[in-house]
Amino acid sequence: MKYGDVEFDTYLKNYPDKNGYFGKYGGAYVPDDLKKAMDEITEAYFTICKSSKFISELRRIRREFQGRPTPISYLERLSSTLGNVQLYVKREDLNHTGAHKLNHCMGEALLAKYMGKKKIIAETGAGQHGVALATAAAYFGLECDIYMGAVDIKKQAPNVARMKILGANVVEVTDGLQTLKEAVDAAFAAYLKDYKNTIYCIGSVVGPHPFPMMVRDFQSVVGIEAREQFLEMTGELPDAVVACVGGGSNAMGIFSGFLNDPVEIYGVEPLGRGKNLGDHAASLNYGSEGIMHGFNSIMLKDENGDPAPVYSVASGLDYPSSGPEHAFLRDCGRVKYDVIDDEETINAFFTLSRLEGIIPAIESSHAVAYAMKLAKKMGKGSILINLSGRGDKDMDFIIEKYGIR
The domain 67-99+220-402: what is its CATH number? Predict the structure, then answer.
């Protein structure tokens, strides 16, 4: 299968290139000292990623600790309200800690142990990455610092408590808008000061090379499982695959399993309150090429060309850029990127909860909302949604802001 000049039968072997580029996107735009740290991580990853010992240990962890494989659930009642299109969800909410994030956190922490690091640090928005990394740190006996914006700490109190119970040091970030971008800024600054003893475990397919590649590789288990499971359940592939996109780790995880198949793929960004700059975080739909946090991708910019203020009801999606691989897949036409606003998202949150007994994360609710709209347009066929996380963390916030609908 070919889109533009890109052959997708060999895509995962060819992208990124040796310098970490997906076409013109990606790379490692970091200070010289940090470049040495990135090279060290790259060398270590390529040394062990093909190691049977590393692979066997990671598979054991996934099976015995994470509870993988996670199942696919058929949404019979929701599907019946939308016509003849059948909806299914890949249940990453049933992965240990309640989201897909543990897939790459356990891999990154295992890499840190191999490299002899004593501490792992990271940013978090919705708190799921923070909880997952705190869990990995406890499992491997590592120190753990989690940087989180003050706004997100207030919105995601249950996950903040989980991180602290797991032994992580939660560092409140009070700069700027006090959300995900500022948390990344603070975590990078801390990493620069102690990269010899520390590894920065980036929470998505963003950042300097090799992180977009590494996180995708660790998350690809979602797509591998989902493809096999869907074929076993239905005897065919889904007509469409849908996932929410902020930085884009859950999306790249499931997309990677279907890139070379005759399947339509949709990435869903947060339109928030509307199209005005500062009211959304839909970088792939409204942004332009730019460099931030060590990588070149599509980003939302202010009048000075700096990262613009962004907003989303979902703390895990309010980031002014997206992973470089998503920018590449957008440009070559393999993945279609569209938007869903806050109101549609919250409606989907309650609809899935009431009709199927599944309370989704607000992030995942963007994908559910888009799949519901897509089903009405398609008229027939099947849609597989990546339900990237559970909504326990969001319930207090939703009840306070929206009440019980």
Answer: 3.40.50.1100
Q: Which of 73, 92, 101, 301 is catalytic?
A: 101
Region for residue 391 given its phi and psi (left: phi exceeds 0; alpha: psi -120 to 50; beta: otherwise):
alpha
DSSP state of 331: H
**Of the residues 79, 220, 312, 388, which is catalytic?**
388
Three-state helix/strand/coil letters over 199-251: EECCCCCCCCCCHHHHHHHHHHHHHHHHHHHHHHHHCCCCCEEEEECCCCHHH
* Active-site residue, 123 included: yes
Residue ranges matching CATH 3.40.50.1100 in the chain: 25-61+101-212, 67-99+220-402
Does residue 169 contact residue 138 with C-beta atoms inside 8 Å? no
Residue 167's SS3 state is coil
pLDDT confidence of residue 75: 98
What pLDDT is attached to residue 397? 92
236 has catalytic annotation: no
Give the tokens for residue 8. Answer: 């997708």
CA dist., res. 370 & res. 387, Å (int): 12
**What dotted CATH number matches 25-61+101-212?**
3.40.50.1100
Q: Is 388 a catalytic residue?
A: yes
Question: pLDDT-derived band of residue 50, with 50, 70 and 90 as boundaries?
Answer: confident
At 100, is the pLDDT very low, low, confident or very high (cuts 50, 70, 90)?
very high
Instruction: Pick the catalytic residue from 92, 108, 123, 344.
Output: 123
Grade residue 80 by pLDDT with cuts at 50, 70 and 90: very high
Q: Whole-model pTM?
A: 0.95
Tell me the average pLDDT across 155-179: 93
**pLDDT on residue 25:** 98
